[in-house]
Amino acid sequence: MSRPRTLFDKIWDSHVVDTQEDGTCLLYIDRHLVHEVTSPQAFEGLRTAGRPVRRPEATLAVPDHNVPTTDRSQGVDDEESRIQLDALETNCAEFGVPYIPVTDIRQGIVHIIGPEQGMTQPGMTIVCGDSHTSTHGAFGALAFGIGTSEVEHVLATQTLIQRPAKNMRIAVDGALPNGVTAKDMILAIIGKIGTAGGTGHVIEYAGEAVRALSMEGRMTMCNMSIEAGARAGLVAPDETTFAYIEGRPMAPKGGQWEQAVAYWRSLPSDEGAVYDKEVTLRAADIAPQVTWGTSPQDVLPITGSVPDPAAIADTVRRESVERSLEYMGLAAGMPLSEVPVDTVFIGSCTNGRIEDLRAAAVVAKGRKVAEGVQALIVPGSGLVKAQAEEEGLDTIFLEAGFEWREPGCSMCLAMNADKLKPGERSASTSNRNFEGRQGPGGRTHLVSPAMAAAAAINGHLTDVRDLTG
Amino acid sequence: MEKFKTLTAVAAPLPMINVDTDKVIPARFLKTIKRTGLGKHLFDPMRYDDKGAEKPGFVLNKAPYRDARILIAGENFGCGSSREHAPWALLDFGIRCVIAPSFADIFFNNCFKNGILPIVLPQETVDELMEDAGKGGNATFTVDLEAQEIARPDGEKIAFEVDPFRKHCLLNGLDDIGLTLERGGKIDGYEGTQRGGQPWLWSGATPA
Ligand code: SF4
Fold it and tell me: Is the CB–ligand 1 distance for residue A183 below 6 Å?
C-alpha cells in the first residue's frame, strides 16, 4: 500500500508535470487570477518576447486594488491609477484574457470573486500575483501568491517551477465561544506561532472549530495564512464546500458535477498522514482578538493590555516592540479596550464577504457610530453589495452612520483615495497592520467585523460581547 | 536577467526583524507599469521624512552605504505582500545580495527571478557580518556564487548554501520561461491526461 498522504501531497502529486534531478518540479497551474498592480510588467514581458498566453480561458482578470470606492461613473481621477487600470483592460483584450470590468456587477476583490464565480474548486492549483491567494485554500485548492516574473511564467506556460512545501497541521479543537469568529481564530494562531511560524510550509487547518465554519469563515482563516509566513492554507473539502460551489457560474455542470464531487471526496488527508509540524489550540481559550503593534503577531485578547517592552529579554525583539509602540502611539499597560479609534474599515479579502457584513450589521443595528469616527463599509464585490442590499444591510449601516461604498481593496492597502492620515488610528477587518499599510503614518488595529462595528459604535476598541451580550 | 558571478561591495547593515515588503516599498509607489525607477522609493518611510527630505540617521543615507550593493538584515526579511516591486526597488538602488537569518518565501523566490542573491546564514554569523558592515567604507565583502563563499573584510571565508538549479540560473542569467518552454511537449502531455481524467477542469472555465 502506498504511504498515507496529506491533502497537500495529493494536490501536489497530481500537478507535477516534470521533476528535475535536484527535486525541482514543474507544477501545472489550473487557474490564474490577475489584477492591475502586479500584472502590467508581466504582459509587457510577453509582448517583448512575442509570447502568447497559453490558456487564456484558465485565467481571469479584474481590477480591484486601485479602483475608487465612491461614484465611478466619472472614471478615475488619479492618473497613475488610471494608467494601470487601462493597462489591464488593454492587455486582457490584446492577449484574449477574460476580464471583468469595473462597471460589471461581478467586479470585486480578486479573492472574493474567484470563489463567488465558482472558479475556485477543490484539488486545483490556483495562483495570483498577490500573497492573499491563500484565501482559495478554504476550498481544498492549493492556492498561493506569486511575484510578477512568475505571473509572466504562468501566462506563458501555465506552469511554475517549484519545490514542494512542508506539511503543517493546525487543529482548533472544540466549539468557538459566542462572539468569537474565524478572524479571532486565525489571529490567535498567528499570535501563537508568529509571522514566520509557517515559513516553508502549507498549513492545513483542522479540528472541530474549523470544520464547523462556513466557507466564508474558512476563507478568512486561509486568507491570513500568509501572515503566519505559510505559502498557503488549506481546509479539507466537505459537504459545506460542495454546497457552496454547486450552481455557481463556473462550477462543473451535469454529469461532470458528479464526477468532480467524487474526485473531491478523495482529497482529504489519509489516516496516518505525517505532518512536519503540528499545533493544537482549544477553541474555548480564544477570545475576540485585537492587534496592538505593527505585525499581525502583535495580537492579544481584547481583555488584555498593551505589553511592556521592558519585560522582554531579547534586545532585537525589545527594540522591535518599542518601535511598534512608538509608531502606534500606545503606552505600555494601557487596557486595549480603552484605545480610541478615528476610523473603522470593514472590508477586504479577509472580511468583505456577506457573512462579515451580516455580523457587522447585527452590532450596528439600532445604534449610532460614535461622533468623530469615520466608518467605511466596503463590500468585497458587486455581488456581495447587491446581496447585502437585498437583505437591507445597507439601510442598517446608513442609518447607523456608516458609509456604504463600492467594492475594491480600498483602505486595506490605501492605493486609492481611502487612506488614514498620519497619526490616525483605525479598527480594521483587513489582514495587515504594517507601518503605513493604511496610509503613511496610519495606525491599524486588526479585528473581526463584529469587533470593528463595536469600535465604530463606542469610538474605542471594544469587546463586542459587551454589546451583544 | 543580469548574471551573478562575484560581487565585491560595501554592505549596509539593517538590524531589524520582520522587514515587510510594505516597508521596502509602500503601496503608493506600485502604481507603475514599469520595473525600473523604483530605487528612489526603496525603504521610503525609513529613508525620508514627511517632506521628502532624507533622514540622516538611516543607513542608506550615510555616505559609504549609498554605494552598498549588499544588504544585511534580521530574520523574516521580505514578509507580507508578494509585490516584486520590492526586489525591483532593491535592484534599482544597486543591491544585488541580501543576507539574513531567514526570508519570507515569496520574496526569496522573487529575488532569484531578478538576479538578486538572497543568502540565509545562522543568526550568529549574520550578527558578525552585521558588525563588520557597521565599519563603513573600508569594510568590503566579496560574494562568490560559484564557490558559495562570502569573504569578510578581514579575509575570512564563510560558506553558504544555495539551491543548485537557482544557482545555475543566476550564474548564467537564464530566463526561466525560455527553459520551461523547451519542455512544452511535457506540458502538452500533462494537459492531455488531465483533460481525459478531470474533464470539468477543461469546460466552463471562462465566466459568461
Ligand atoms: S483586499 Fe487587501 S489583502 Fe486583499 S487583495 Fe486587496 S489589497 Fe490585497
Answer: no
